Amino acid sequence: MEPFIVCLWILAAVCLVTWVLSLITNEHSWVDRIWSLVPLAYVWVFAGAAGLQDPRLNLMAGLVTLWGARLTFNFARKGGYKPGGEDYRWEVLRGRMGSAAFQLFNLFFIVIYQNVLLLLISLPAWTAYDHRTPLGPLDIVLAVVFLAFLVGETVADQQQWDFHGWKKAEIAAGRTPSPRFLQTGLFRISRHPNFFFEQAQWWVLFFIGCAAAGSVLQWTVIGPVLLTGLFIGSTVFTESISRSRYPEYAEYQRRTSPIVPWFPRSRDEQPVTAP
C-alpha cells in the first residue's frame, strides 16, 4: 500500500478516536494529547516504505522523533495526559460560544482541522520519498538548525516551568508573586519564544524536503504556512486572556516582540506607526 494512503487511514482513525473521546469525556484536548505522537507515525511510515534505506528519510524521522519526545515530556509534566488536563483556553471559549456552536467548532476545527494540519506538516517526508536523492551538506546544515531550534524550545519551556513553580510557591507562602508572568530569559526577547521555535522546526523540515527535490517550489509549504497561521491565531487569543488577567501585560506587549525573538524596546521608546 502506498505510504500516503496509510497516512490517510491513520488520519481517519485519529480523527474518529479524538472526536468520540471528546464527546464521552467532555474534554476537548485529545488532539493536544496526540499532537506529539501522530507526526512521528506519519514520517516513519514514509521512512519504512523506503525500507529504512534512505538516509534523508531516516534523518527526518529521527529529528521528528526527538521533537516528539521533548514535547511529550513537557506536556506530560504539566499534567496534560491526566484526567481534567484540558487546555484552559477551551473552557474560556466554551463560555463565549453556545453549546451547539462549540460542538461544531470541536468537530471541524479542534478535531478535523488540527489533525489534517498534523498530516500536512509531516508531508515533506513524502517529498523526500518521491525524490530519493543523495544526502548532502545542505541536509546536515538544516539538521543542525533543527536541533538548535529544538534546544531553544527546550530552554524556553524549562524557563516557563521554573517560573510557574516559583509562582506557585509564592502563592502557597501567602505572598503575591511579582512579576505575575514570565518576562525574563528568552521571554525578554519574545513573548512566545516556544511558539517561535516550534514553528521554525517544521519550516526546517519543509526545507529538508526541498533539498531532496532540489527546489523550494513544493506544495507541502501549505503545512508550515497553516501551522504559522494557527500559532498567530492562538497567540492573539491567548494574549487576550492574559490582558484580562494582568493589566500590566499591555506594557510587556509594547516592549517585547510577539513571537520572533528581537531586541526589546526601552521603556521610553515608542512603537513606530504609519504616518
UniProtKB/TrEMBL annotation:
Signal peptide boundaries: none
InterPro entries linked to this entry: UstE-like
Transmembrane segment boundaries: 32-52, 104-129, 135-156, 195-215
Keyword entries, A-Z: Membrane, Transmembrane, Transmembrane helix
Pfam families according to UniProt: DUF1295
GO cellular component: membrane
Protein name: Steroid 5-alpha reductase C-terminal domain-containing protein
